[in-house]
Amino acid sequence: DGGITQSPKYLFRKEGQNVTLSCEQNLNHDAMYWYRQDPGQGLRLIYYSQIVNDFQKGDIAEGYSVSREKKESFPLTVTSAQKNPTAFYLCASSMRLAGDYNEQFFGPGTRLTVL
Amino acid sequence: AQSVAQPEDQVNVAEGNPLTVKCTYSVSGNPYLFWYVQYPNRGLQFLLKYITGDNLVKGSYGFEAEFNKSQTSFHLKKPSALVSDSALYFCAVPAESGYSTLTFGKGTMLLVSP
Asked: Cα separation of A25 and A34, whole Å?
């Protein structure tokens, strides 16, 4: 999982609570991403950031928020507005090169369960 | 829209036999194509990518992929499967939504039996 850490590995949340998932990378990558994985649906992009202090919504951003105050860190907050938050969350990073052929490096994931 | 399709939810193969995991793509312009693997409760690991050039791309762990422009396919292959190859495999293409983002297929579970 090379250079990207996510914490915690497992997270339990009560309905109505906000929770923040941590993602840190030491690869000196400019770009970082958050995906949600549900069985049979592949990966869906939540948010991404190309540079510090800038980020964009992905395909399923509703109910989530992010910040990018440091190059190494891209935390994801799952808010109470997210109606079905139970899922496996993956953080990734990549170099920011010209052209669309940058492989992404993934963290080990955080499994969030809403009780 | 840029997309990939993985037509098989699951592929079963016996150890020692060749394996193929299928992927077809729909892109505008030159295709950039990726394969990733995910072991249980882990993040994804990059296997290989096609940018341009040779239609047979070699990657990690003995995997290779064959790019076929006329069939718009990018199938993942390995000459001799191992039980340890059992995992979830994803094909991906650059997304239209943003610079360097990827769109993933739904994944194919590969099960290699002893």
From this structure: 13
